Amino acid sequence: MTGEPNRGPEFVQSLERGLAVIRAFDATHPQLTLSDVARATGLTRAAARRFLLTLVELGYVRTDGRLFALRPRVLELGYAFLSSLSLPQVAQPHMETLVAQVHESCSMSVLDGDEIVYVARVPTTRRIMAVAISVGTRFPAYATSMGRVLLAAQPEDRLDHYLDGAPLRSLTRRTITDPGRLRGVLSRIRAQGFALVDQELEEGLRSLAVPVHGEDGAVVAALNVSAHTSRGTSEVIRRELLPPLLGAARKIEEDLGVAGR
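-> structure tokens emitted (261 positions)
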């Protein structure tokens, strides 16, 4: 691995590299070959193979001999952090009420680098995405309604850094990949207080998100509802789902204010 910063004497490089192997897998790359992992991490094939086989033996990775994929046990690595947050516990009952009201799935996420990570989710019986979503799932922020709400709340210097370096890839034919256009979209989101993403993450999926503010007024998370395009146009989605979504976010904020005092 090249370009590594100087580390302290207690730094364990093998742990860093092992975590890099785990992070090589994501929603768009659920299965990787040995060569894929080596390329993504900058490790040699021999080193990547040792890390992968160690993770297989520990139960975090599975393999068919050619392809490697994460196993559910890897969620244990993040569960302690997620479960220590009060936010998901505060939000869950309000999300359940919202799902019962609108009959669409509801999720909450926070921003982690260039991605969003799901910290709470209430699904419906209908599956509308090809990828199964659960707590800990990650998606690129730029192509998601929750990601855009969270990006819109960032300071200008942080947003500049993101737009300068984030890989804006086309996930569907509708995905916005131009940094200037995305900046304009984020500016409108900041002004209007919600984001509507129409089939940019996955064809057939529309998602509506609003910010959740902490007691100090800062945006601490994003809350969304997702619906299949068969429910109606983007305008129908906004008209039917935005008021109850905003109501759920306000109730979560009220509880967070009580919890924070």
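The longest strand covers residues 219-228.
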